Amino acid sequence: MGQLKDTILQTSLELFDKYGYHGVAVNQIVEASGTSKGGFYHHFQSKDELLYVIHDQFITYALEKATYAVQHYESPPKRLEEVVRSFVKVFDIYKPYISVFYQESTYLKPPYDHKIKQKRAAFKQIIFQVVEEGKQSGDFRSELPVEITGMAILGMVNWTYKWYQKDGEKTIEEIADIFANIILHAVLYDTRQNVKRTSNEALFFTKQK
């Protein structure tokens, strides 16, 4: 990304976050970024496209990392771990972008909104696919519904944007480790737990006789 384009992008992030998408005019972005209207329109066709680029930056990153994990790791647990870890890191790398996304995503217009929805759907489908593969391989608990499990993972990680602080007690790497640990322990098939559950069920039915 060129220096001027990046400057315009960063300036607009600050302005949108402070005043909202509709509270900021192109003239304000131009003035605050120290460029001209010609400079702005050289890089962005419109303010709508600028908002799309803000959304697309972090969604593309998350999708590329998830795709890489699926292509480069063989086992479903390792794939899920890497998808979760890279997903969590998005909230550190693209924190200003995500703040604007959650505040202003409803203002995306066609065809930009369609492009973003396609990428979000593709990312969601990767998580569903990994969960399904884990069930089929016997690594994940067979009783888990794929879509509900996938949506639970998405919801859990997505909420990070509400509380994560770069200067917080835990680094983003540590937080990513914690999320991966919690999620994997929730979905992994544990033979010890299965034996315990089977024993308890047998005891229950024995008492019923």
UniProtKB/TrEMBL annotation:
The keyword Repressor applies. The keyword rRNA-binding does not apply. Residues 25-44 bind DNA. The lineage of its organism: Bacteria, Bacillati, Bacillota, Bacilli, Bacillales. It comes from Terrihalobacillus insolitus. Gene3D superfamilies: Homeodomain-like, Tetracycline Repressor, domain 2. GO terms for molecular function: DNA binding. This is TetR/AcrR family transcriptional regulator. Residues 2-62 form the HTH tetR-type domain. Pfam families: TetR_C_24, TetR_N. Keywords: DNA-binding, Repressor.
